[in-house]
């Protein structure tokens, strides 16, 4: 394996970047996994939470897009925060993403596993207890993680083609659910739609913070487009960079999709049905709209969406670790590039190994829901941390734009600043409400970064 080999430059255009951004958030997966959590926290205000969190995340997207102009870098947040605030802050920004991605390997692969077991149960008349057996769920999740890791390691082109196929199939299934849901239940909704769902005055500070921190999990993953900046085609002179344009269109589509899909879930399912569905909310919706076996296509969309988001998170982790190792912030061995596949194969192997170990540990927890609740909240804290830092880096780097006109001031400084402040507020406000396991994952995961930081300084 050669350190002289480079990433596959010029492999992705604007369209592929947008697909990666959408697939990174895994729309079907996000709805399936997070809906029960957010509805249990804020009820019908889940729609407003998704809207306002989308606006916050749009400001973060603007920050990433502008920072990408400094230099497209596989490390993205790590590189830009380090450029603006110094290497220590840059390291912890990158470390926050690495920790979030590792924890995500558990919360992401488990829905794929439960969906796979659900299909197997329907096809072979297996015991329904399998879906709640954490040992079986962890085993099937590890199998999925291994298969996805192999695809990612083989090259970015393979990954992008796989994402395109899965996203098209997933989109067709989801659109069928949306159309059928409005036709069948708009006149007899389980929850009557009102403008209060969208009103900011319907929230208290506590409910806004709780809803937004959970809603952040819906949107997380679009920023993979920026970690693939070194593998994206160069922009023509005077044009916006493909990674930035891809992120913009991905975010616009995601905000609209999540709002519409949450409305569909609320008009089709009662609160008890949402809670009972747990990680299979889409299947519960499809089961009320379509006869068997057609309702099983919703399970397929969840599996495909989960595969897509696991793939993009492996890409984010491996590219960030590659960039940090290339700069000697982590051990240089993680910067090794496969000479044929042009992928950071060592870093990719690391997240596979850590993911399998975490899945093995999670198999000892009492229930699948307990695993997901702890991991989703901890990841939300990590997202607030590293994306908030990126927003502040954008504000400081482009602070001179405050004198360049309303549009430049708003898009480069004011909106990113508001998003960054709210990100930090959400993380700090809800930290005292975490249970012991969630706090250990959220705070302990960041704190342990001191060890590799000091080791990196010792080596250099």
UniProtKB/TrEMBL annotation:
Give UniProt keywords alphabetically.
Cell membrane, Membrane, Transmembrane, Transmembrane helix
GO molecular function term, any single one? transmembrane transporter activity
Q: What is the lineage of its organism?
A: Bacteria, Pseudomonadati, Pseudomonadota, Betaproteobacteria, Burkholderiales
This protein's major location comes to membrane
| Compartments (UniProt record) | Cell membrane
Bilayer-crossing regions: 21-43, 49-68, 89-114, 134-152, 164-187, 207-225, 246-269, 343-364, 376-398, 410-431, 437-455
What residue ranges carry the coiled-coil annotation?
Answer: none
Could you tell me what this protein is called? Serine/threonine exchanger SteT
Membrane protein topology class: Multi-pass membrane protein
An example of a Gene Ontology cellular component annotation for this protein is: plasma membrane
């Amino acid at each position: 394996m050669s350190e002289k080999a480079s990433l596959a430059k010029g492999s992705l255009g604007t369209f592929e970047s947008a697909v990666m951004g959408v697939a990174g958030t895994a729309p079907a997966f996000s709805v399936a996994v997070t809906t029960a959590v957010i509805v249990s926290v804020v009820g019908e205000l889940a729609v407003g939470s998704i809207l306002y969190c989308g606006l916050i995340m749009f400001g973060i997207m603007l920050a990433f897009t502008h920072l990408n102009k400094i230099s497209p870098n596989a490390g993205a947040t790590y590189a830009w925060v380090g450029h603006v605030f110094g290497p220590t802050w840059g390291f912890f920004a990158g470390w926050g993403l690495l920790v979030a991605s590792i924890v995500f390997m558990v919360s992401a692969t488990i829905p794929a596993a439960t969906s796979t077991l659900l299909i197997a149960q329907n096809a072979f008349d297996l015991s329904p207890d399998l879906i709640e057996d954490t040992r079986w769920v962890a085993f099937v999740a590890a199998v999925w993680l291994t298969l996805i890791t192999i695809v990612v390691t083989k090259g970015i082109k393979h990954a992008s083609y796989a994402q395109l196929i899965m996203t098209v199939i997933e989109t067709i299934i989801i659109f069928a659910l949306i159309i059928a849901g409005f036709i069948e239940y708009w006149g007899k909704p389980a929850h009557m739609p009102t403008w209060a769902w969208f009103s900011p005055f319907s929230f208290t500070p506590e409910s806004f913070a709780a809803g937004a921190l959970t809603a952040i999990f819906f949107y997380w993953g679009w920023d993979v487009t920026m970690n693939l900046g070194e593998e994206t085609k160069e922009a023509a002179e005077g044009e916006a960079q493909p990674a930035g344009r891809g992120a913009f269109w991905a975010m616009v589509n995601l905000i609209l999709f999540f709002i519409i899909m949450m409305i569909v879930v609320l008009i089709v399912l009662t609160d008890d049905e949402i809670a009972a569905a747990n990680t299979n909310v889409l299947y519960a919706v499809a089961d009320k709209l379509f006869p068997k076996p057609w309702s099983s296509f919703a399970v397929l969309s969840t599996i495909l969406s989960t595969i897509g988001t696991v793939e993009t998170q492996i890409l984010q982790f491996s590219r960030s670790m590659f960039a940090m190792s290339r700069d000697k912030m982590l051990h240089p061995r993680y910067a090794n590039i496969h000479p044929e596949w042009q992928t950071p194969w060592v870093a990719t192997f690391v997240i596979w190994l850590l993911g399998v170990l975490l899945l093995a540990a999670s198999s000892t927890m009492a229930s699948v829901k307990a695993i997901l609740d702890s991991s989703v909240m901890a990841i939300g804290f990590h997202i607030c941390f590293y994306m908030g830092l990126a927003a502040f880096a954008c504000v400081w780097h482009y602070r001179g734009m405050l004198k360049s006109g309303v549009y430049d001031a708003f898009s480069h400084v004011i909106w990113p600043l508001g998003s960054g402040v709210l990100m930090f507020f959400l993380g700090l406000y809800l930290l005292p409400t975490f249970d012991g396991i969630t706090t250990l994952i959220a705070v302990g995961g960041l704190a342990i970064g001191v060890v590799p930081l000091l080791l990196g300084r010792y080596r250099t």
